[in-house]
Request: fold
Amino acid sequence: MTEIITGKTKIYCIIGYPVEHSFSPRMHNAVFAALNMDARFVAFSVKPDQLGEALTGLKALNVAGFNVTVPHKSSVIPYLDEITPLAKKIGAVNTIRNEQGLLIGTNTDISGFIRSLGSLNFSPENKSIALLGAGGAARALVAGLADAGASRILIHNRTVEHAESLLTEFSPIFPQTQLESVSMETLQATTLDLLVNTTTVGMESGESPLDLSQCQEIEHLADIIYSPAQTTLLKQAEELGIPAINGSGMLLYQGCGAFTFWTGKQAPEAVMQEQLLGWKE
Ligand code: ATR
Reply:
C-alpha cells in the first residue's frame, strides 16, 4: 500500500449489514501494503432495502471490486452483469469485480472451504459427506461439494423442511451426487469420510451440534466456525483422534480467492495468515 492516497488510488470494499466486525479490511489492506499497491479497502454498512442504491453508487464511483457478506449474498445477484457458473448454482455471491463498468460476481467461500480441506489431505471426489445444518452456509457447501464430485451428501437439520428444500433444489442440478435428508440416528449410524458443521451451534454457547462419541465412524471433521477457534465439537474430535479443522482456513482462502479474482495476482498467504493470527473480532 502506498503511503499517500492519490487520485489514482483504487478502492475496494465490503458491503454487509452488520459489517463492523469484518476481517476483510484488515486482511486486504495488509496485502496492499505488503505488495506496495496503490489501493485501499473499506467497509460499508448497507441496509437490505438500500442494496440497489449502494450497487448503483459503487458502479458510478468506479469502485474496483468488493466483497458481499450477510445478508446480501443472494439478493445481490439480480444486480450483476455476469456470474460464474458455480456461484449461479449456489445462488450466492461473495466477491464482485468491476470490469469497465460491468459487475462480475463469483463465490470464493466455497473454493476457500474446499481448499481448506487440503490441510486434512481431503478431496471431496467420490466421498460420503454429512452436513449439519441447512442454512445459507450449508447451501453453498452442498453445491460446492457436489460440484467437486462428492458421491453422497447427507444433510441433517433441526428443521427437516429446510433440509428437504435444499434437496429439492439441488438434486436435479447435481444428479451424480446422492443427496439425502437424514435423522440424527441415521447420520450417527453411517460411515462418513467427512462431517461438516455449518450450524451456528458452538459459536456462542459451549454446546455441540452432535455427540461424536455416538457416531459409527467419521474419518475427518470440519467446523466452519472460526471463533471460538476450538468449538466443543472440535475438542471432542481431538479427544477421539479425528483429524479436524475450524473455519479459519475457509476465511483465509476466500480472501486469497477474492484478491486473485480482483487483481489477477497470487495472494500473499503468509501476510493474510499473520493478520488472522493477530485478529480478535
Ligand atoms: P448461515 O447463513 O450461517 O448458514 P443460517 O442461514 O441462519 O446461517 O442457518 C443456521 C443453521 O443453523 C440452520 O441450519 C439452523 O437450523 P434451522 O434450519 O432449524 O433453523 C441451524 N441452527 C441454529 N441454531 C440451532 C440450534 N440451536 N440447534 C440446531 N440447529 C441450529
